[in-house]
Amino acid sequence: MTDHPSLQPYVDAWTESIEAISELVKPLAEGEWNRSTACPGWSVRDVVSHIIGLECELLGDPRPIHTLPRDIYHVVDEPSRHMEIQVDVRRHHTGPEMTSELEYTIIRRTRQLRNEKRAPDAEVQSVMPGGGKMPLERQLMLRAFDVWVHEQDLRRALGKPGNLDSAGAHVARDVLLLGLPKVVAKRASAPVNSAVVFDISGPVEFMRTVRVDAEGNGSVDGSPSLGPAVTISLDWETYLRLACGRVRFDQVSDQVKIEGDAALGAAIMNVFSVTA
User: Fold this and answer.
1) In what residue span(s) does the MDMPI C-terminal domain sit (predicted)?
2) Beta carbons within 10 angstroms of residue 175's beta carbon
3) Is 181:272 a contact under the CB 8 Å cutoff?
4) Which of 130, 159, 188 is the endpoint of a domain?
């Protein structure tokens, strides 16, 4: 257990998700590692490689010296190039090689987290290129979020749903809610002094209101709005897929109910990815 109780929920959520991933991929036949996922250009193997690579960087392992092929279409900028190196270097690894490295990485990282002595506000390096420093608590929150989202990517690719209400799911809810004000107020240009209600059903159920003030700035809270400009209702998994950029609104519009200003509702859902 870490020295600081406020960090432990993120460590626990990360542990639950990464161990679930290990159990998911352990019995895979070689061909199943090549199944495509909702992450552009990434197979099951690639998603697992991404997870291993980032955790190894947090362990302090040197980044691979590797030149990417020129024809990887989804590598469009420096962040995606940075992420792709850890993925491409493992593209020819066999299933047993992948599961062995994942298990060993989990053991090492678990030990590191168990012995964590730094305070939650200790400044640590972001794993993203040019990401600068961030508090340790935020880094652990984002790792719990990332690993759980990729667990869901793998489950959908392999046809093995589950853990939509796990500890990682609740971390993901909190992370994704942080992006809602920007989506509504800035990207969708919701009118000033307006409110937009999101009503989410399913394994993780919640209702939140995004309010746009007189200066056009957004904020989110759990208080109901008596006269929202629009109310958007959808299930938790669809919310997750849209917010994480795994699917477009036009592909799942039949699973989204918009009441009130239909044009504003559609504008919001068309720019709903908060991880982009």
Assistant:
1) 171-266
2) 21
3) no
4) 159
Output the domain CATH number for residue 134: 1.20.120.450
Question: Does residue 190 lie within any of the structural domains?
Answer: yes
Query: DSSP states of 61-77 as a string?
Result: PPPP--PPPTT-TT--S
CB 95 within 8 A of CB 27: no
The pLDDT value given to residue 224: 87
User: Are 35 and 130 contained in the same domain?
Assistant: yes
Q: Which pLDDT does position 220 carry in this prediction?
A: 97
Q: For the chain, list residues with pLDDT below 70.
A: 1-2, 129-130, 276
- What domain range includes position 190? 179-270
**Is the residue at 114 inside a domain?**
yes
What is the reported pLDDT for 118? Answer: 94
- Could you give the CA distance from residue 210 to residue 222 in angstroms, rounded to a whole number? 9
Q: Which among 212, 210, 178 is positioned nearest to 196, based on CA atoms? A: 210
pTM of the model: 0.95
For helices 8-25 and 167-178, give the axis angle rounded to 10 degrees.
Answer: 120
Q: Are residues 40 and 95 in the same domain?
A: yes
Looking at this protein, which amino acid is placed at residue 49? S
